[in-house]
């Protein structure tokens, strides 16, 4: 039997006011909240939160934090809140940052982190630890974790990062490997939404506003805004829904075509004739197939959108001149600090992940499911990508708000609806050691 300790939070004056502060180890949160009364209750996740007994003696914790993949508003808030959570809730003083993503484990020195060092970082965009894409060497990371005596690893990153985390975890270290899912595109499954997404949608409003002002001030003005979303169009969809003055939103999930009846060009022509201007929001992955058809060879160029709106089509074929104002705010959006709501969200994510690691769990990410903080096993996060379902009500709301054509026949998409039932099951992440306290 491994040693456990009373949770030091029980003596913390700030939290002593809470009537039932500790979460029961068997509390779960259902993935599906709306179910038919006779159907199975589906997958459940462990509810996140402080446990009555913890696995680590605070003095023995040696924690590290790493940020990987593309930037996202909120990374610094998470770093701050993990450090402060460990320090103030559990009295953990040994926390280091890994410099420059996964490769920093073996290619760079670590950075010492304490509440003083991270005090103001949530007001800045980016990540104070730096990040990286591209491959890494798992064995070298595992060696580095062991050499440094690290026993808690906090990994903040997207699908690629969590796949890497899952590999590190499979090496069987006696270490808590805990993830926080990061994606500005909101394309990680299971969770309600990802941190930074709200901030991105809010910041996108400024670009759409500029596109509208520009388009409205000139004859046949088209304001075209490119937003992030290589495979999932959530930012474009929510930014469009929020603005109410976008005439067309194009996302990767919804195929469209340019010429002919019901096509994009016909819609643009009609809008310009009726209103004199229009605003289009395009997610960067939208219309990829059109680009590759129209180019001699497939290239990795961005779908910047203005290629699709070649002036010649309107001037030569339709005898109409258009004024295209193209705005690409993508990196400006990604580089800002998180807004108020994302800051609070990041705080909860960070505290949840700290409670989970202290309780001895491993191989999990913290995440919001149906409004509750949960622990989700890595495999649930990495097995698929979250996408806008164009047969759902949200996309219908968007179509109704922009009045754009659907560009597809309903028959094509009906088959998309996944309706498979999952039996009632507790979806559990791995355990820290064979004898971890909650699984005896
Ligand atoms: N399939 C994978 N398996 C293991 N590790 C991966 C995988 N994909 C990416 N990684 C690691 O995760 C890091 C970040 O991944 P990347 O895909 O660039 O960003 P994100 O985590 O935002 O998806 C990479 O630098 C790489 O070391
Ligand atoms: O230029 P980079 O760093 O490759 O990042 C751009 C890409 O990152 C993404 O935002 C996806 O990153 P996330 O992991 O945050 O979802 C894409 O939509 C975008 O094309
Ligand atoms: Mg990715």
UniProtKB/TrEMBL annotation:
Superkingdom, taxonomy of origin: Eukaryota
Protein keywords: Allosteric enzyme, ATP-binding, Glycolysis, Kinase, Magnesium, Metal-binding, Nucleotide-binding, Transferase
SUPFAM superfamilies registered for this protein in UniProt: Phosphofructokinase
Region Disordered, residue ranges: 410-440
Any single Pfam family the record assigns to this protein: PFK
Single GO MF descriptor: ATP binding
Annotated catalysed reactions: beta-D-fructose 6-phosphate + ATP = beta-D-fructose 1,6-bisphosphate + ADP + H(+)
Listed cofactors: Mg(2+)
Residue span(s) of domain Phosphofructokinase: 64-355
Any GO BP annotation: fructose 6-phosphate metabolic process
Keyword Transmembrane helix: no
Compositionally biased tracts (Basic and acidic residues): 426-440
GO cellular component: cytoplasm
Function, as annotated: Catalyzes the phosphorylation of D-fructose 6-phosphate to fructose 1,6-bisphosphate by ATP, the first committing step of glycolysis.
Protein name (database record): ATP-dependent 6-phosphofructokinase 7
């Amino acid at each position: 039997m491994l040693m456990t300790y009373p949770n030091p939070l029980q003596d913390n004056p700030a939290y002593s006011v809470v009537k039932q502060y500790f979460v029961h180890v068997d509390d779960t949160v259902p993935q599906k909240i709306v179910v038919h009364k006779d159907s199975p209750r589906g997958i459940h996740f462990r509810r996140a939160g402080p446990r009555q007994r913890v696995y680590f003696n605070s003095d023995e914790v040696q924690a590290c934090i790493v940020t990987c993949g593309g930037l996202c508003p909120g990374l610094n808030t998470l770093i701050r809140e993990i450090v402060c959570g460990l320090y103030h809730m559990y009295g953990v003083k040994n926390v280091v940052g890994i410099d420059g993503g996964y490769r920093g484990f073996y290619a760079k020195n670590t950075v010492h982190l304490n509440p003083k060092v991270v005090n103001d970082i949530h007001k800045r965009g980016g990540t104070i630890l730096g990040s990286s894409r591209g491959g890494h060497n798992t064995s070298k990371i595992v060696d580095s974790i062991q050499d440094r005596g690290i026993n808690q690893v906090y990994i903040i990153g997207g699908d690629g990062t969590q796949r890497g985390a899952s590999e590190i975890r499979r090496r069987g270290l006696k270490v808590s490997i805990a993830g926080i899912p990061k994606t500005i595109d909101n394309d990680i499954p299971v969770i309600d939404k990802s941190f930074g997404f709200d901030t991105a949608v809010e910041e996108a409003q400024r670009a759409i506003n500029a596109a509208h002002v520009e388009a409205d001030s000139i004859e046949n003005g088209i304001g075209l805004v490119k937003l992030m979303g290589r495979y999932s169009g959530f930012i474009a969809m929510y930014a469009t829904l929020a603005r109410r003055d976008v005439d067309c939103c194009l996302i990767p999930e919804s195929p469209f075509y340019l010429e002919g009846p019901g096509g994009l060009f016909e819609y643009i022509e009609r809008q310009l004739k009726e209103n004199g201007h229009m605003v289009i929001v395009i997610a960067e992955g939208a219309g990829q197939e059109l680009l590759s058809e129209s180019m001699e060879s497939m290239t990795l160029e961005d779908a910047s959108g203005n290629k699709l709106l070649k002036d010649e089509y309107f001037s030569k074929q339709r005898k109409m001149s258009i004024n295209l104002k193209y705005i690409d705010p993508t990196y400006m959006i990604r580089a800002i600090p998180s807004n108020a709501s994302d800051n609070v969200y990041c705080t909860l994510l960070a505290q949840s992940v700290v409670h989970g690691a202290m309780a001895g769990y491993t191989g999990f990410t913290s995440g919001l499911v149906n409004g509750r903080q949960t622990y989700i096993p890595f495999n649930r996060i990495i097995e698929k990508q979250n996408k806008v379902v164009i047969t759902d009500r949200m996309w219908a709301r968007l179509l109704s708000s922009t009045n754009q054509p659907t560009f597809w026949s309903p028959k094509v998409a009906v088959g998309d609806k996944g309706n498979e039932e999952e039996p009632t099951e507790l979806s559990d992440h791995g355990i820290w050691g064979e004898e971890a306290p909650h699984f005896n």
